[in-house]
Design goal:
It is a single chain. This protein has 261 residues and is α+β, with helices and mostly antiparallel strands. The protein folds into two domains: 123 residues, MutM-like, N-terminal (N-terminal domain of MutM-like DNA repair proteins); 115 residues, Orthogonal Bundle (Helicase, Ruva Protein, domain 3), CATH 1.10.8.50. It contains five helices and ten strands, in the order αββββββββααααββ. A four-stranded antiparallel β-sheet has the order 1-6-7-5, covered by helices on one side. A four-stranded antiparallel β-sheet has the order 2-3-4-8, covered by helices on one side. Helix 2 packs across helix 5 and helix 4 crosses helix 5. The longest helix has 19 residues.
Amino acid sequence: MPEGDTLFRTAAGLRPYLVGRDVRAARAAGPGAVPQIQRVIGKRVDSIEAQGKNLLIRFNGGLELRTHLRMHGSWHRYRPGERWRRPAARARLVLEVDGAVAVCFDAPVVELFETRAEPIHPTLSSLGPDLLKPDFDATEAHRRLRAPERRSMTISAALLDQRAMAGLGNIWRNEVLYAERVDPFVAVADLDDATLDRLIATSRRLLRGAAGLDRRRAPTLVYRRTGRPCSRCGTPIRSAPLSGEVPRTTYWCPSCQGGQA
């Protein structure tokens, strides 16, 4: 699943070609296709922003498009007439402006709504502090992770909860826990405040690096390294499924982090 850093880079890549230009054509297809997509034709693209794992395209006149890419979605940008790198049948949304065509492939969530409704949007309004925003509120993230409904969650699951902190996905969730030598299966309630604060700070640092906001992207040292030696102690990396709405895999070093035997 694309994480917040991927959406941040996607928004940055689309802005130079879409922002400030009028939509000449728009179409949507696939399950749950937006029937009112024609309303954006003739509208100017005012801004493109990543919010957690959501991409928001705002138009003058108060309209807003939200896409969520889930596991397999992606945005592409083409020149008019250029051959697409994926089949047209997989295009969920197409926006055409002068000089560019933006295509969203395979996204399960594409919706159009009025920007004024964003504060009460069922998904956007519930997001926790965005790790990539300049005004990221670490105190609020700490408070949300300490909320009663997350006390019994494993820290692995809690870090993926976008209502606590927005932007972190499976890759960097694993890397954060490895960097801080935290057992991925420990309950949030069993972590002290100092450890929780370190996890929040490292989440922001690693995601910013992956988004290109810091000078260097950190290497992935545990993700998808099952059976390979830990870079610190040489113990074989282990993996196990993390239950939840979307299946994920947890990777960890049983010597450096503890965790399941």
